[in-house]
Amino acid sequence: MTDQKPVVRLDGVRKEYGETVALDGVSLEIRSGEAVAVMGPSGCGKSTLLNMIAGLDRPTGGTIEVHGERVDAMNETKLALFRRHHLGMIFQFFNLLDDLPALDNVALAAQLTGSKAGPARKRALELLDELGIADRRNIYPAALSGGERQRVAVARALMNRPALLLADEPTGALDSKAGEQVMDLLLDLNQIGQTLLIVTHDERLAHRCASRLVEMGDGRIARESALERS
Amino acid sequence: MSAVWRAARAAVRRRRLQTFLIGLVVLLCSATTVVSLALLDASSAPFDRTFAARHGAHAVAAYDPAKVTEAQLTAARTGVAAAAGPFGQIVLEPDDRSVGPLPPHAITVVGRADPGGPVDQLDVWHGRWPSAPGEIVLAFPPEENMDRGPLAEMTSVSANGVTLRVVGFAYGISDSADGWVTPEQVRALHPTGLQMLYRFTGDVSTKEAVNARLSGVTTGLPTGALIGAEPYLTVKEDAAEDLGTYLPLLATFGVLGLVVAVLIVGNVVSGAVVSGFRHIGVLKALGFTPRQVVTVYLLMASVPAVAGAVPGAVIGALGGQALIGEAFRGFGFGDTEISWWVWLAALLGIPLIVLVSALVPARRAHRLSAAEAITAGSAQRRGRGLRVQRALSGTRLPRAVSLGLGLPFARPGRTALTMAALLLGVTTVTFAAGLASTLNRVAEIDVQVSGDIGVRGLPSDFGTPTTRTDAQVEELLRGLPGTARVGVFADTELAAAGSNEPIRVIFGRGEVAELGYRAQLLEGRWMAAPDEVVAPSNLLLERGLKVGDQVAVESGGRRGTLRIVGETVRGPSGPPGLMADWSSLTTFVADPKLAPSDFYYQVQVTPGTSVAGYVAAVRAADSGLDVWDNTGGDEFTVIVAGFSTVLGLLLATVAALGVLNTVALDALERRRDLGMLKSIGMTPAQVVAMMVTSMAALGVVGGLLGLPLGILTHRFVVPMSASGARVRLPLSVLTVWSPAVVIPLVLTGVLIAVLGALLPARAAARMTIAQVLHNE
Ligand SMILES: Nc1ncnc2c1ncn2[C@@H]1O[C@H](COP(=O)(O)OP(=O)(O)OP(=O)(O)O)[C@@H](O)[C@H]1O
Ligand SMILES: [Mg+2]
Questions:
Q1: What is the pLDDT of residue B687?
Q2: Is 0.95 surpassed by the pTM of this model?
Q3: Rounded Cα distance, A109 and A107, in Å
Q4: Host H or E run for residue B749
Q5: Domain ranges of chain B
Q6: Best of A23, A46, A56 to mutate for ligand 1, by most ligand atoms within 8 A of CB?
Q7: Is the interface score ipTM higher than 0.85?
Q8: Residue of A53, A64, A90, A112 to mutate for B, most B C-beta atoms under 10 A
C-alpha cells in the first residue's frame, strides 16, 4: 500500500557536535504510507536523525526535504508552522504539560494554530475516544499510567492530521503490556495510511509495526531491509 | 571540602546566566540599599552627624569679663569633656541698615585665632580665616555660586567706627557667632563678653540637662559671671525646621528602595536554589551528604553575592553621598560621610539576606530525598492554579496568551515576590512623578510671585541713591520695552496690640494681584477694602492667626484694625508680612517716611523679553537702582527632582531585573514544556508572547495596586514635607492626577515587566530544544 511520492528525502545529511560526528552523511527516503523503523546502538545518531527531520536542530551539511519543502533552509517561524501542519511527534517521556488535563493537552496542538477552544476540545475528545482513553480526559498527567500518557501524546500528535508521525522510542518508558498497546495503536494508524518513522531499541516493535528497517551505526546507515510484519 | 568546593564551582560555571544575574541584582540592590539607608540616615540625623563631625558645642556661653578672669574660665572644667575659649566677644551694630542678607540687627563678633580647635570646628567654605586686624569672616551656610547673589556683594562691614574687610565665609554647626575676627582685633574693639564653647561628659539630651552640666561648670565662678548660654538643642530645633521639607521625601524613597532591594534579592537567590533542586538530587545520588549539598548551594549563591555586594555598596555610597551632599549643602550640613552602619548594613546585610534566602530552600533540599529533589525541581501543581489553567484554556484568548496568563499560578511564591517588586516600582515611579509635577506647579507659582526682576533703590552706603521718587521709578519701569506687570511694595513694622513683637505690613500697588499673589490664595479671598489684608501661611502659623481674624495695630498713636481675608502661599521677597493695599498706607501709618531703598519693585516681562537685557536697561536708565534677576533656578526643585528621578529609575531597573530573573528561571525550569510546545508548532513569536504575557499580567496587577499606593504616599508625604517648611500647599498643586498622568503610570508596571521579560523570553524562543525532549 505504499505509493511513490517521497514524504521525506535526506541527502548526505551530516551533523557534528564539536568533535562528535552524530550523523555522517545519511541519505534516506520515506514514501507516503510507509512505516520505517530505525534501530542501532545507543549514540549512533537515531534521535539526531529525527531532530533533523523535525527541524528541531539544523544539519551541518546535506539537505532535508519533507513534504517537498527544504526543512534545513527554513527560519524558525516557518519551521514551527511546518511542524504544526505536517508533523506529529511522540517521545519516550511523553512530554505532556503537567498542569493541563489530558483533554486540554491534546486540544493544545489545535489551539496553537488558532482554533477555538470548543472545536479543539471536540476533536481532542474524538481522538481520545478512538485511542480508548476518553474516560480519562479530565485526569492530569501525573495521575495517568505510562501507557495512558503515551496515548494522550499520540492523540496530541495526530491532532492536526500530520503527513508524518515521528516517534522516538515510544515504548521505551513503558512496561511490556502498555508497550504492546502503543504498538498496536501505531500499527492501526499505519494501516489507515499514516506515514511513520519510529526510532526504537525494541525488535518486536520494529517487526510488528514497520514495513522497512533502517539500521544505523556510527552516524551512518549500515543496512536497510524490508520487513514482513509479524 | 574540596569536593564541595568543586561541585559549587561547577554549579556556578554551569549556570553562568544565573550567577551573573545574582551578581548583577545584588550589585544594584546593594547600591540601592546604601542610597536608601544613607537617605534614611541623613533624614534622621543630619544635624547630629555634622554636630559630631565638627565637634559642635553643647553649650555656647558668654561671660562677663568684668566679673571673671580668663584664667578662672580656663580652670573651670567640671564635667567638661572639651572646651574652647575664652574668646573675646562683642556685639556690633552695622552702620548700613539691612543690606543684603546680613541680619538687620546687631551681629555678634568673636575673636578666634583659628577655625579649628577641640570644640566647634568651623568650615571656612569660601576665602580664608582672618589673619590680621581689619579682617572679618562672616557666618553663612555654604552657597553654590559666589559670583552672583547677595553674598558676592558683601565685601565689608562698618560698625563702631571701624571697617572690617570680609575675607571669607564660614559655617559652624553651633551658631556661636555671626562673624569672626582675630583676637587682636576683638581686643581693640573692647570686648563686652568672653565666649566659652563646651562639650560635656554625661547627659546632654535635654535643655535642662545641658543647663545642669553648665551650672556644674559655673559653681566655682563668681556669681553673675555667666551672662547667657545657649544649649545646642535650640540650634538643633531650628535646623530640624529647615530640613523638615526634605526629610519626609528622603525617608519615603529610602524605605521604598530598601524594601524593593530586599524583595528582589530574596526572590533571585531563592529562585536560583529552587531551580537547582534537580541538581541537588543528582548530587545526593552521587553520595553528597545533605550538609554538603546545602553548603554547595550556599557557596553557589554567596560567591556572586559577595562579588556584587562590594562594588554595589561602593557605587551606592558614591552616588548617595553626591545626592545627599547636594541636598544638604545649602543647610550647612556638608559633611555627608556615609555612616559606618550604612556600609556595614550593605556589605553584611545584603549578603546575609542572600544567605537566608538561599538557606530556606536549601534546608528543604536538605530534607528531600534524591528522587524527591529531582521531581521537586519542577513547579508545584496546586488546586487553584490548575483550575485557573483549565479555565484559561477554554477562553477565546490566543493560546499563547492564555498559557502565559497561567504561568504565574504555577509558582505563587515567586509570583508574589516579583509582583511586589513591580508594585513598589510603580509606587515609587508614581510618587516621583507626582512629586515632580507638584514641584513644577509650586515652581510655577513661585516664578509668578517672585516675578522676573527685582528692583530696589540703592542705599546710600552702596552708591548714590536714585533721585527719582517711587512714582517716577514706577513710571521708568513701565516705560521700558518688555514690561508686562509692575508691582510696587513698601513695608513697615507696626506695633501689634497684645504682642510685644511688631508685625510687618507690606503695602502694594500696581498689578499686585496679577503678579500671581491672587492665584496662590489658599483660602479666603483677595483684599477689597482698605482695612483688609492677605497673609502668607508661615506668618499665620508663626502668629497663631487664621483667616477671619483681626489684628489691632498702632502707629504713632494712630490705631486701626486689619482684617485677614485671605491666606497665600507666600508674599513678596523678604521677611513675611501682611499684604495690604497701597491706599491703606496713609490710613494706618502715621508718618510714612520712606527712603528710596525702602521701595521694592517687582517686574514681570512679556514672554520673549530677555531678562538680562531688561536688567541692563534698568541699570543704564538709573544707576541709583539695585536691579537683579529673580528667576534663578529653584534649587530645591532641582535637587528633589534629581533624587526622585534617580531613585525612580533605579527601582524601576531593579524591578525589571527581578522580572528578567523570574522569566529566565521559568524558561529554565520549563524548558521541557517549551521544547514540547515548539515541537507541536509553537512559533518563536508565540513563545515570546507567552513569556511576556505572564509578566505583563503581573505588571498590570502591580500597576493597578502600585498606582493608588503611590498616589496615597504622595498625598500624605508631600503636605508633610511642606508643613516641615511651614508652608501650606494649595490643593491645586496636590491634585496632579489627571488621566494623562495616571494612564501612563498604570502602564509603567506593564512597561517594566515587558522590558524585563523581553530579553529572556527571546532567549527562550531561540533555545535549541532538541535535547530536552529526548532525555529525562
Ligand atoms: N546537543 C548535543 N551536543 C553534543 N553532542 C550531542 C548532542 N546531541 C547528541 N550528541 C551526540 O551525538 C551522538 C548521537 O546522539 P543521539 O542522541 O542521536 O543518539 P541515539 O542514537 O539517539 O542514542 P540513544 O539510543 O541512546 O538514544 C552521541 O554521541 C551524542 O553524544
Ligand atoms: Mg535517542
A1: 94
A2: no
A3: 5
A4: helix B739-766
A5: 1-52+251-377, 65-224, 380-442+634-776, 452-629
A6: A46
A7: yes
A8: A112
